[in-house]
Specification:
Blueprint (H helix, E strand, L loop, with lengths): L4 H18 L18 H13 L5 H11 L10 H10 L1 H13 L8 E12 L2 H6 L7 E5 L4 E13 L4 E8 L4 H11 L2 H4 L4 E4 L7 H9 L2 E4 L12 H21 L10 H25 L13
Parallel strand pairs: 1-5, 5-6
Antiparallel strand pairs: 1-3, 2-3, 3-4
Helix pairs in contact: 1-2, 2-11, 4-11, 5-11
């Protein structure tokens, strides 16, 4: 197998189709009697991943491009309203496919994770903030890494050192990172139940004796830099290079997969577009792992 986008799309389609045939409960619910979709669920997932990898932030432009250049892969392509509606309804299915792809890689069993949050901007003008359907969930926040204020959400991501997404959450910009991380772990107790001695690397915001005790109850050992006034903590020499890993993963999501150019205007729209980009990253890592590529998180072969 080669590492180019058509090959990845074919492998992803086959894997997704097999999964959905064996587990039909993962498909979006539909009436028993009605019109059968001409674009299958596996094709929808593949089309969404290719859109993210090829850098099309506009669904209308993407479908025009696909109609002109990808007819050898997709016999039928919906119009933009139908594609948008199908994608929003498919969010739970996309999350399931992402988890199965991740668990099918050699990176899934890594015993070191990194955690951080990154802004997902949703608007800039005051009029947008006042009128947006996201008001009440999206809020003003501050990004210390880039020294900027923003209005929107935060993507909290737990990943392996190879960049494979393990767990995630999408919250308001001011949500406490510690509470969100514990929520991710509580939502999937099986995620750490079979991983005794898992190590988690975070920044200075993941602090507190009670917080570390709760992580220890999950079987997780936390490594983070010492805060001002604290004594030196174990593993301090590892933080600078390893902290760059999570920053690099976030940069992949933003620079190559256009995380902050998602274009979502409703809760469902933002959620599925973030999931779409996480799935694209997971699918690329899965495919690179399957073909033995030297760098698992490299997307360069799939962006053209």
């Amino acid at each position: 197998m080669s590492n180019e986008v058509d090959t990845l799309a074919t492998a992803l389609y086959v894997r997704t189709d097999d999964l959905l045939k064996s587990r039909p409960e993962f498909r979006p619910r539909r009436p028993r009697v009605g019109i059968v979709p001409r674009l299958t669920d596996a094709e929808l997932v593949t089309l969404a991943v290719m859109q993210a990898l090829l850098g099309f932030t506009s669904e209308a432009r993407w479908l025009r491009h696909a109609g002109a250049h990808l007819r050898h892969l997709f016999r039928y392509l919906p119009q933009q309203p139908g594609y948008n509606k199908r994608l929003r309804a498919a969010a739970p299915m996309i999350a399931v496919v992402m988890r199965h792809l991740a668990a099918d890689t050699t990176l899934w069993t890594d015993d070191v994770w990194v955690v951080d949050s990154t802004p997902v901007e949703c608007g800039r003008s005051r009029e947008t903030v006042k009128r947006s359907d996201l008001a009440g969930w999206a809020e003003y926040g501050y990004c210390a890494s880039h020294s900027r204020f923003f209005w929107g959400l935060r993507l909290h991501l737990v990943a392996t050192l190879g960049g494979l997404p393990i767990g995630f959450a999408l919250t308001g910009a001011k949500a406490d990172e510690r509470h969100t991380l514990l929520g991710i772990l509580d939502a999937e107790p099986g995620l750490v139940a079979t991983r005794p001695g898992q190590t988690l690397i975070g920044d200075k915001n993941y602090f507190g004796a009670g917080f570390e005790a709760e992580l220890a109850d999950h079987g997780i050992r936390l490594l983070r830099p010492a805060r001002k006034g604290e004594p030196a903590r174990p593993g301090a020499g590892l933080f600078k290079p390893l902290r760059q890993v999570i920053e690099s993963i976030n940069q992949t999501l933003k620079a190559q997969l256009d995380l902050e150019r998602h274009g979502g205007r409703t809760k469902a729209g933002v959620v599925v577009r973030v999931l779409q980009r996480l799935l694209a990253l997971t699918a690329a890592i899965w495919h690179n792992d399957m073909i033995g590529a030297p760098v698992h998180r490299s997307l360069t072969a799939y962006d053209h």
